[in-house]
Amino acid sequence: MGSSWRWQLSRAMRLTLRWCRPCRPQRGGGNKGQLSELWSYSGLLLKSLYHNSLSNSDTLLDCVFEPVYWIVDNVTRWFGVVFVCLVVLLTTSVVVVVYLYILPTIISTYPVHWVVWHLCCGHWLLVMVVFHYYRATTTSPGHPPKDKIHIPSVSICKKCITPKPPRTHHCSICNMCVLKMDHHCPWLNNCVGHFNHRYFFSFCLYMTLGCFYCSVSSKDLFLEAYGSVESYYQTPSPAFTFRETTAHKSVIYLWVLTSSVTLALGGLTLWHAILISRGETSVERHINRKEIRRLEEKGKVFRNPYHHGCVSNWKLLLGVEKRSHWVTRVLLPSSHLPHGDGIVWDCTFTRRDPMAI
Ligand SMILES: [Zn+2]
Ligand SMILES: [Zn+2]
């Protein structure tokens, strides 16, 4: 055995030395034959760099696009900070406009019970948005333990070289495995996973409700301001003070921004609500669709092992264990931990087919 590898090594060195020697011109087709041999040898050398029993066209494509992935991942990571600053700035600007122009109008024109309702509702939504955004960005989504080897796992992560528990996926932007990974959110500059999924969904929900509230509350003022801005271009133009023109433009900005966010974020929230009702994450949605098609071809029906029924899925996500929790844990800010550790999962049945990962 020992002499065998030495012989292989000396043969490889001899071959290399032969190729390194300057080529002597040969008669007939010698040069052509040597060139084609050199070509096939180079091909073999190139293949030896990346080929193994698991190599396929996907692996090759992955290698070719690796620099592109690297650039996208780094740009997303960097843009994450910009996006978080943007969310904070836009939210602050909306709150400032509401305090400066909307609330004073409500207080001066509405009856007392409506004023109290607006004050309570507006501030409750603001507290919920700020709390859930802060928690969603600062809470780690959860990662598989690196020191424990004997954990229930479905595969080994090729990048982290650690066991991957069920529902865990590798995030190329965070460059680590994430428990029950949903997606990497650039608006949070964080991955959405087991420990911050509830914060992420609650933030989306309360932000949509908050924007809807601002949009509806400022509708009359917006129509008034829009009419005033149109009259700027009449001759003679009406005499508005600087404070009045600023108020008009601020109210228009507020209404356009909050209405757009209500539509865009409302759609996203609805999509995530559908996924939660089905007991799926965004990543699992893609995997399960493939599984449905694969099993359909075999005449079988796919069943999601993490679907416990619509209401139970919501209770598991929101951490509702008794009725009062709907108020204390859903309608009020709460830092309770999610059900389970994100490593061991209760399945509704035992799968016989190997799980797609
Ligand atoms: Zn990983
Ligand atoms: Zn991530």
From TrEMBL:
<dbReference type="GO" id="GO:0016020">
    <property type="term" value="C:membrane"/>
</dbReference>
<comment type="similarity">
    <text>Belongs to the DHHC palmitoyltransferase family.</text>
</comment>
<keyword id="KW-0812">Transmembrane</keyword>
<keyword id="KW-1133">Transmembrane helix</keyword>
<feature type="transmembrane region" description="Helical">
    <location>
        <begin position="78"/>
        <end position="102"/>
    </location>
</feature>
<keyword id="KW-0012">Acyltransferase</keyword>
<dbReference type="InterPro" id="IPR001594">
    <property type="entry name" value="Palmitoyltrfase_DHHC"/>
</dbReference>
<feature type="transmembrane region" description="Helical">
    <location>
        <begin position="252"/>
        <end position="276"/>
    </location>
</feature>
<feature type="transmembrane region" description="Helical">
    <location>
        <begin position="114"/>
        <end position="134"/>
    </location>
</feature>
<keyword id="KW-0472">Membrane</keyword>
<feature type="domain" description="Palmitoyltransferase DHHC">
    <location>
        <begin position="155"/>
        <end position="286"/>
    </location>
</feature>
<keyword id="KW-0808">Transferase</keyword>
<dbReference type="GO" id="GO:0019706">
    <property type="term" value="F:protein-cysteine S-palmitoyltransferase activity"/>
</dbReference>
<dbReference type="Pfam" id="PF01529">
    <property type="entry name" value="DHHC"/>
</dbReference>
<dbReference type="InterPro" id="IPR039859">
    <property type="entry name" value="PFA4/ZDH16/20/ERF2-like"/>
</dbReference>
<protein>
    <recommendedName>
        <fullName>Palmitoyltransferase</fullName>
        <ecNumber>2.3.1.225</ecNumber>
    </recommendedName>
</protein>
